[in-house]
Write a structure and sequence with these properties.
- By secondary structure, this protein is of the alpha/beta class.
- The protein has two domains: 121 residues, Roll (Urease, subunit C, domain 1); 289 residues, Metal-dependent hydrolases (TIM Barrel).
- Helix content is 34%, strand content 26%.
- α9 links the parallel β10 and β11.
- α4 crosses α5, α5 packs parallel to α6 and α8 runs parallel beside α9.
- It is globular and about 70 Å long.
Amino acid sequence: MKADFIVENISEMATAAGRSPLTGTHASDLRVIRDALIASHNGRIIYAGPRKAADVEVAHGVRRMDAGARAVIPGFVDSHTHLPFAGDRSNEFLMRMQGRSYQEIAAGGGGIVTTVRATREISEDELFAISQERLDRMLLYGTTTAEAKSGYGLDLESEMKQLRVLRRLAASHPVTVISTCMCAHDFPPEYRSSRDEYISIISDQILPAVRQAGLAEFFDIFVESGVYTRLQGEVLCRRAASLGFLLKVHADELSDTGGASLAAEVGAVSAEHLLFASEEGIKKMAAAGVVATLLPGVPLFLMMDRHAPARTMIESGVAVAVATDLNPGSSYTESMPLIIQLACFRMKMKIEEALVAATLNAAHGLRRAHEIGSLEPGKWMDALILNSRSFIDLVYHFGVNPINTVIKRGRIVVGNGYLKKDRK
């Protein structure tokens, strides 16, 4: 097969390999190849390895990209975001700076319901425009695939609006967008005193309508004290699975509610947050093959001293991924490089483990590891050229954007730190 796009003069290529997550002692397995070359055809990689060993046929009119003796890594897979939302909660941020907790603010009528009100009021076109701006920023920071959740509508019409926005983004933006229905993010204000009624609405109306319209692949639920109980989580997860949704669970973020164990028992693809996950829950996740999607931006943003026990999870054989949790209330960032840095500084992950967690393991948490998450033949040519000669600078040089160039399916969509106008 002849290459139609070649990236050469690569100081080093750092990538995981394979189509399965890396766990345990293999969680840091990276191929680091000096003086590398990557070639693709129709957006798929046909060679990724040492330049001197490359045996690549060159098509007429082949495009060549000089990496400038910089490092190349796979595109980031941000496997947990709440991308389509309206409004902001900067006033609540100020309250936290003054000593009030996230739970206190939510109990006083703030929190998720604040964003629900703003998202319900905005038009679909306006929601699309502001979500597109966020997705542009994610792309500038190296995200080439992103999961995105609804959950700021909490009624049929508004949930469908959020998910339609995600479908429009998936069709118009270079970042691959994978949709999750999270109509069980909280209870809407109008059903706070009749929660069973809203659970019936989710089960009988929202989930069937979303599934029929083909608007989401995954279902997610917030199992937490004051939100959904473990039993309610199990009921809704099993209902969603019966409709054909793959499952995710917001688990053990603010307290140990048994969410990690629930994720294992219902066959969830991933469990998210997990700051308070028990040893029993971690063992069950490892046995069931549930990906732990850790969100180190959350305890930073909420000014918590606790962080998810990444080391225990890795040593227990759990596949660990990391993601931004982009949202207005508890992790307002589009930057995957920041998340990789926090994974190392706060959760004591090795740089290699954090990079694997942001690429191959995250791709597995979205059931996409067969086509993204590493630089190897057969996968999409989603690659990042850094501003440095080594992937170690992802963490070593912090507080800056380390991404120079973003390549999506064999096309340059960010060059020299700027979005390309013809990026789609």
